[in-house]
Structures are given as structure tokens and as C-alpha cells.
């Protein structure tokens, strides 16, 4: 999802991320033949989703009636749109991406590329947007005739038939004759027939893209029914976020369709986080659905193993194959946990200074929870709901509500909102994405070698940061900082300083870079100068004095053994200090939050305390 600029939510009206819909086009096909106007509306909405994906460099490649869902109003939502991208265009899995009946001919002709083959072969190019147009054409054909295609053919025969369409003049007529529905096709309006022919153009060079097809005259009557989608301005942007906010002339329109299901109005990230706090366990759900299956290790051994490493008699691991099951997570347990939370808790008044907590039917319990230890508060579902909603509203009012964010951060920061809250505490503002994108992160520089050594050596403690994608993001963020600060240099420990910001903003490198760039001048001023000996000597002097005050016995012992902190030990000290804040330890993340909400001298005190 990091490919989409709306990092926390997919705002497009044609991408499904939030809701489980009761039916898809798969059920619609066999029920009845749809009206042509309905088919055109479905096609246009699907093209809207495909266009939005293509704009962000994503190709669906698994488009089928199963993955085109409909909401209660009949609007289209595309599902499973990230499978082709997240598998590196199918390279990372042992199964093909897509469904045989809906694969474009050029996709079938490429075959399956395997890197383990002994014969050298050229890796095929990734599929483009036009492959989805062919899939859409097959789906629209099925909607028009009210039946599924290729049901009497096995998979190999389907693929052969699709490839033989290169030898025919009219793909649409051949498909209709093959399935005995030529009369139905001939009765369709010319606009629908023209649309089907354009989608089912065999050669991709002559087939239109989703963007080109949306502008076709076929949709001249349909397109005015849809308003142009405008993506909301992000939190850190140079644009005015309230520029497009307007109130209706009739204020009653605001509360005409009051939805009492307040939880459904929250983002998918918030609901999932609260679901986990309420006792939800995703792995347990997958085990119950038999998607995750345990297998005794002895059963995975081959029967024969030769000296060259070739093995025989080893059963194929089914867990590496595609399981297209969709698991719906029940919210009953979460809703039961929040049944006493009133609707007013979802809309706290930010200007009310009389109470730090939103009002609810269980306000007494919330007030009591606020006095509990932090580790208990972070596990309290109702308390976290109120804190998340409060911080969400405060951050949406940033920087106007910056002072109140500081005030609430001193109480506690909900873990889910920690990344954005840290950015607000550090004073990050402006068009951070444009600034980050403008930095050259590709040209080799002398620091590259040291960065390449430090990242894999120092960051194996977390699965996310130790992943190949985590290493790549580390390199880009660190290199961006080095390139954009020519007066400063890369010292050991800078990568550990970057780690918490990258972890919290893993899908937002620009924000991780902005936080790091704001943190260093405030808390490590001049630390990364090429000659920083005088700066370090000042800090070491303060460090020694504070150790003497904090732990006189330790200070006397260091003096007796002749240990004098100097410049040569500072890099090690700084690295150990950074690594001491292990990312997967929530208590240390809370300490970081305290650091950011206090003065820059507090870090030196904390460093002394931990060192002692």
C-alpha cells in the first residue's frame, strides 16, 4: 500500500480496503442478463479503479468476477489488487498470478518464469495496464450474455483457445459462436459491442489502456454521473487542507443520514488495532480456517538425496501455493467491548479545556484508567479508542493545535498514533514528499560503503527492518540525509538514530527522513560535523558530571581505574544508547516519546541514567 500516496487509507471510490461486501460479480453473472446501462456503469467504475492503480504504478493482473465486489448501493470495489505487486510481479511465488479464463493472451504467451531453471532464459517484462483491459472485456462479455465462459474446457484447453484467437478477424464473434450466444451479442447496442471489441483486441499494441478507454465516447452518457475524485490533502503538505471544505446550504443535510455504527467510520488501521486489543488473534483465525497448517518436519524430508543436491520423493509444500480464501474477521467481540461507549466519544470537543478525556457513558472508568500505569493503559481497549480519536482530531488540526498535542503527549501517546505524533512534536511541516523526492538518492557517494556495512550488521533485531525492503529503505533515507546536509558527515550510530523513525513510518520514507532531519539539530546539534571533537568534549564533560551526581560510587570507580571518556568512545556510546531503545520494546518507545515532549537536555540526562 505504500505505492499509494494516501498511506493510511485508500481513498479511491473503486478500491476495496475497508468493508466486507456480501456479493461479487461472480454471483451476478449466473443470475440474469444485466441491462446495458448497468454494464456500462460497472465497466466505468472498474476502469476508475484501474486508472487510479495505474497512476501509482500498480497493475491488477488478477482481475476476475470474484475480485469485483459490490456495496449496498451497487457501486464497484476492486479487491486483491496488490497481489501482483507484492509478489514482485509473480517472481516471489511458485504460482501464476491471475485466473486462466481471464488472462490476456500476451500474459499466457510469456509462460511462467522460474529462476531455478538450468537453462538460461530472459526474464519477461512485467504485465502492463492493457492486460487488465482484456480481463475486463471477458468479464463484461459474461455479464452481457449471463453465463461464464470456458466452463466445458480444462485449463490447458482454455489457454490454447485464447492463444488461437490471434488467427481470427473478430474475437467477439468467435467467443459468441463458441458459447452459443451469438444472438444475444447481436442484440446488444452498438456502444456496448464497440466497448467489448476494444477490450478484446488481441494485440496489446492496439488495445487501449484504462485511461484511454475512460475517455472513449462509449461512456459519454455514463461519465457525467460520476464526480471527479479529489484525493484529500495529506497532513504534511504545502497545500491548504481546508481549501475544498464547504458546508451545504441546508445544514440538516449534515445529519440526514446519521449512522449509529460509529466504529465503521474509523479507518481500517484503527479498527484492526482495537480488534487486537479486544482479544483478536489473526494467526488463530487463519489456523481455525485451516489456512495455516502445521506439518511434522519428518514429513518434509526427501526420500533420495544425491551428492549434487538433487532430491526425489519430496512432497510439494501446499503452503507455498495460492490459497484464494477470503477470511472475514468478526467484530462482535470488539463491539461488545465498546458497547458502553457513547457516540459523543467519537467526536471529542477540542476546545473544552475542562476535561482531558472525551465524555462517554463510562467516563468514570476512563478517568480511573488514566491513573493506571502506562503499560496497562496501552492494553485498555476503551481508553485507547478515546486516545486514538483525540490524537487523530488534534493531528488533523496541526499545526493550529500543536500546543495541545504537546500537552496530551505528556500524558501518553497511543502507539498507533506515535509516528505522526512524533512528527508533530518535532515540528515537521511543509511539502515533505516533494522535498524528499527531489533529493538524489541514486548517485554513488563515498559514504555508501559504510552504510552498506552498518545496516545489515546492526539491525537484525527486528523482522521489518532486517528485511530486504527494510535495508533498501534504510539506504535511501540515510543517503538522502547525507546528500541534503553537505556540511555534516555520516558517523557510526546515525543508522541506529534513523531506525525508530523508519520503523514507525515504514511506508512513508519522506516522513521518516523529515523526522530524522528535525531531530538531529534539536537533540544532536553539531554532532555530525566532520570535526566534532569540541562538541563531544562538551557533552562528555556534562556526561561525567551527571554520572558523578547520579551515581557517585560508579564515578569514583571510574576515576580509580583511570577511565576517562574521550572522543574515541563516543561513537560506541551513542550506538549503544540508540540500540538500547530496542524498537520492539514498547516501554522504550514510551521513553522516546517523553524525550520528544521535553527539552533537548533531557536526552543527556536519560543517556546518563541508562549508562549508569
TrEMBL record:
UniProt cross-references to Gene3D superfamilies, sorted A to Z: putative rabgap domain of human tbc1 domain family member 14 like domains, Transferase(Phosphotransferase) domain 1
GO cellular component, one term: nucleus
Family matches, as InterPro entries: Kinase-like_dom_sf, Prot_kinase_dom, Rab-GAP-TBC_dom, Rab-GAP_TBC_sf
Domain of life: Eukaryota
Pfam families per record: Pkinase, RabGAP-TBC
MF GO annotations: ATP binding; protein kinase activity
GO biological process: actin cytoskeleton organization; cell population proliferation; regulation of TOR signaling
Domain Protein kinase: 1-219
Protein name per Swiss-Prot or TrEMBL: TBC1 domain containing kinase
Lineage of the species this protein comes from: Eukaryota, Metazoa, Chordata, Craniata, Vertebrata
